[in-house]
Amino acid sequence: MKAEQVEALLTAAAEGVDTEVLTASESDGTYDFSVPDATYHGLTDAELRDAARRHSEAVTEWYFWERVAPDAPDRRAFLRWVEGADDLSLSDRRERLADGVARDWGQLRIRARTVEVGRRAYEVRHVDDAGERVEDLAVHTDPLDARELAKHDDRGRYRPLSTAPTLQRGWAFVDLEPAAVVRAVDTFYPATIANWHRERAGDLDVSHWRETAGRQTGIYGVVDTWDRGEGHEHVEWVAEACCADSQCLKRREWEYDEETDLDVHGGDGTFPCREPCSLVISAARRWARIEGEEARTYEFELTPSEKEQVEEIVDAVADGRADDVREADFSDGANRWRARYLRAKRMSDGTLSGVPTDRDEDGGGD
């Protein structure tokens, strides 16, 4: 144990220390000191130093959380969650930390371990790179490097939604201090730690669909007009389209309104979603305009297999697997050659089966 940790305890005892691992107080020049399995009264300065060294594990733990870990309650709670501090005894926790303990936060694998007396080192990498050797990954030590890594997926496509399950792989942040690991996580997934903590404390301020839609102005004001007193089925479709685990790693906590829950499952994410995000509202703006059109009856000529192929193409695009269909897999309706054949046969003039859309001038697009 470092001398600075003992001296910090003597200084703090003057104001009183009361934590899960130790208590210490000073009165009339003597100290009371206790740890879970021992209690001392009327200690001199030298006797308190001796007692602290005898119970170095507790003092070291107190020093880390009171002098090293970030002060902010949400950040401190997050670090305790990473190492299971609320679920394990001090001795069990320190034993696990010596080997390294890991938790997943979205697509991040966060690992904590003790590297020397009173110091923890953290590592962050993509969860799918958990088994990779660190020397095979691009190593970073500045948590703000996460801003660049979070911008694009593995195919180089821009990621407009930070919590989409499309985080690129191949990197690792190593040897981070407590404040730095929190900053890295908050850069990858902004506000997720704060909202997670608020939810645990029962203070998550949820803004449901109706409240959020009612706040929209300008070109997004059309979203509020989507509610026409005909139920909330359209919001069910929005949640199913945008808020599934396959599309966003947050767990949806917002509903239609305070009294009306949505039937669509909110997801299994570790951190909550407190309101429809800007991307959902942007998509809803488009759907609100499209849904303003009157339905029409069209007559198309398709073979049964062609009808099923159209359905398979919609499924493949919606599930994000269109790019994964093998070129020689002609059994899959979303196969590119099959789709191109269907287009050549049924859309030679650019319309499906030659049937014109006859769109109203103000309908759908913008």
Distance between the termini: 67 Å
General form: elongated
**Uncertain ranges:** none
Number of extended strands: 11
Placed side by side, the strands forming the largest sheet appear as 5-6-7-9-8
Mean pLDDT: 93
Structural category: alpha+beta
Please tally the helical runs, counting DSSP H or I stretches of 4 or more residues.
Answer: 14
Radius of gyration, in Å, reads 28 Å
Strand residue content: 5-15%
Characterize the biggest β-sheet. 5 strands, mixed
Pattern of helices and strands: HEEEEHHHHEEEEHEHHHHHEEHHH
Helix fraction?
Answer: 25-40%
Question: What's the topology here?
Answer:
Blueprint: H1 3-13, E1 17-18, E2 23-27, E3 30-35, E4 38-43, H2 45-54, H3 56-68, H4 73-82, H5 90-99, E5 101-105, E6 108-116, E7 119-126, E8 138-140, H6 146-149, E9 171-176, H7 178-188, H8 192-200, H9 209-214, H10 222-225, H11 233-242, E10 251-252, E11 272-273, H12 278-290, H13 304-318, H14 336-346
Parallel strand pairs: 8-9, 10-11
Antiparallel strand pairs: 1-2, 2-3, 3-4, 5-6, 6-7, 7-9
Helix pairs in contact: 1-2, 4-8
